[in-house]
Amino acid sequence: MEHFKPVLISSSWFSSLPEYLQNELLGKVRLKHFKAGQQLHAKGEDGVGFYGICEGRLRVTTIGVDGSEMLLALLGPGTWFGEISMFDNLPRTHDNFCETDSTIAVIPKNAFNELLKKFPELYPYFATLLCARVRSAFQFIDASTGLSLKHQLVKRLLMLTTSYGQHVPENSAITLTLSQESLAQMINSCRQTVNRLLGELQQEGLVLLHYGKITIPNPDKLFHDYRFR
Amino acid sequence: MEHFKPVLISSSWFSSLPEYLQNELLGKVRLKHFKAGQQLHAKGEDGVGFYGICEGRLRVTTIGVDGSEMLLALLGPGTWFGEISMFDNLPRTHDNFCETDSTIAVIPKNAFNELLKKFPELYPYFATLLCARVRSAFQFIDASTGLSLKHQLVKRLLMLTTSYGQHVPENSAITLTLSQESLAQMINSCRQTVNRLLGELQQEGLVLLHYGKITIPNPDKLFHDYRFR
DNA sequence: TATAGACTGTCGTTACAACGACATTGTAAT
DNA sequence: ATTACAATGTCGTTGTAACGACAGTCTATA
Predict the structure, then answer these.
(1) CA of A18 to C1' of D11 (A)
(2) A4 contacts: CB under 8 Å, gap ≥ 6
(3) Fewer CB near the terminus (10 Å): N or C of chain B?
(4) Maximal CA-CA distance, chain B
(5) Which of A43-47, A113-117, B99-103 has the lowest mean pLDDT?
(6) What digits encode the pLDDT tens for the residues B214-226?
(7) Quick one: which H or E segment has residue A103?
(8) CA separation for the pair B125, B129 (Å, rounded)
(9) How far is the CA of B215 from the C1' of D27 (A)?
(10) Around Cβ B118, how many Cβ atoms within 10 Å?
């Protein structure tokens, strides 16, 4: 457990908590191990806890009416999530799978509620976290609608570099490990189209394509060349 | 002011507050009047207060990179909004216009913060409100991506019947006042396509089209005919 | 009741993305 | 080294929605 502490406190949200609250939260953690492909929880299930990722990678998805899987996010080590069902007692909003073997820190719902009761000063921090969720959802909406497919693709790449490439020196190259197929699922497009668009971006010198990986040599340049409001 | 109290407490969220907290909030309200077309605030501005609609109708929009306006929601009397910038001190997420002459209840930011300080028991209620925002944003995302245009249209119609038609006896007809053009902006489509799709829905007996209005004789039937998960 | 402006209904034409098909290349395991 | 599988690169075909154009209809206002 001590082993994972540096990871669990690494996100900007968690590290914004005063140290004693960090420790109270960490004190309630139980570690759970999952195999690649295993499901953490399904959309519609009751929420049983608040989660932090120690190691591994998670796929957050939903299934459309047509049965196709849509990939909403990839979560990496240090990410905390699952607080929504803790606060409104409603079912989970998404399906959640382990892409790789993973170790997850779980704060069970009961323990979570007791902490909130005992330390109501936690509320403002969670309010901030919830606000961040709303804002990133709005960003997602802006990206999904009213943007050309190419702009959507670029925006999603940029999202992945920040949310997931995390502790990265500001201006350096980032290599994302994901297939063009996954990327296509994220913008609700098809592999072939994504392949063509990535080819164009490579022509423009903004990305480098490898087998199962995409390198963004200069995220800032990518951002500025495809300006968003 | 007393005149608008019944409207301001009518939403399910506000009425979930204990009466003394309702009164504390209402005690800080200042009424402001706006003309049709006037802007309440722009995306990117600092948030100056928490709002409740007394009368009138608001358009929540964003501008895409291509300059086209996207309509995200229509807010009617009884709706409270604008809390996000209160909690994270970041800029407003959207543009906000009055569609008609409107009266808005404003709780200024300072007063809002003082209330939170004095009555920290408000936090759980606002946490619930924020959760509702996240959930409706997720619903929006599900609707925007991975659904056929027709399904998107139906889902948006259903959203409008609930969020906006508000105090409606469960199973009765609802008439929405909005142009096909506005509807098109909401699903990022064009007027002509929306017109065709609405025509099909009318054939199926699920909607009735009028000049500047759309009647949904049986929202439940519409919902069930276009099942969503 | 006449008129302007907003909204609706319905054409083609055109652009673009989804899809199926297939060859090629990278990777990991035996 | 061989093989199996996963991911990529690139066709052509097809379906569908955006767009421009224009006629018809409703509503408010003078």
Answers:
(1) 59
(2) A31, A54, A55, A103, A105
(3) C
(4) 57
(5) B99-103
(6) 999 998 899 888 8
(7) strand A102-108
(8) 6
(9) 19
(10) 10
| DSSP codes of every residue in chain B | -GGGHHHHT-SHHHHTS-HHHHHHHHHT-EEEEE-TT-EEE-TTSPP-EEEEEEES-EEEEEE-TTS-EEEEEEE-TT-EE--HHHHH----SSEEEESS-EEEEEEEHHHHHHHHHH-GGGHHHHHHHHHHHHHHHHHHHHHHSSS-HHHHHHHHHHHHHHHTT-S--TTS-EEE---HHHHHHHTT--HHHHHHHHHHHHHTTS-EEETTEEEES-HHHHHHHT---
Show the tokens assigned to B204: 């199926």
Strand partners of residue A106: A30, A51
Report the nucleotide nearest the CA of residue A212, measured to C1': D7
At B6-48, the pLDDT tens digits run: 999 999 999 999 999 999 999 999 999 998 889 999 999 999 9
Across A149-174, average pLDDT: 74
pLDDT in tens, B132-180: 999 999 888 877 777 889 999 999 999 888 764 343 445 678 888 899 9
How much is the pTM? 0.89
Q: Which residue from B40, B124, B30, B37 is spatially nearest to B82, judged by alpha carbons?
A: B40
Which nucleotides of strand D are protein-proximal, with an atom < 7 A from a CB?
Answer: 6-12, 16-21, 25-27
Quick one: pLDDT band at residue A165, thresholds 50, 70, 90? very low
Using DSSP, state whether A174 is helix, strand or coil: strand
Compute how many other C-beta atoms are within 10 angstroms of the C-beta atom of residue A190: 12
**A112 in Cβ contact with A86 (< 8 Å):** yes
Long-range (24+ apart) CB contacts under 8 A made by A119-126 are A119/A21, A119/A24, A120/B120, A120/B123, A121/A21, A122/A17, A122/A21, A123/B120, A123/B123, A123/B124, A123/B127, A124/B87, A124/B123, A125/A13, A125/A16, A125/A17, A125/A21, A126/A83, A126/A87, A126/B127
How far is residue A182's CA from residue A153's CA, in Å, rounded to a whole number? 12
Integer-rounded Cα Rg, in Å, for chain A is 18
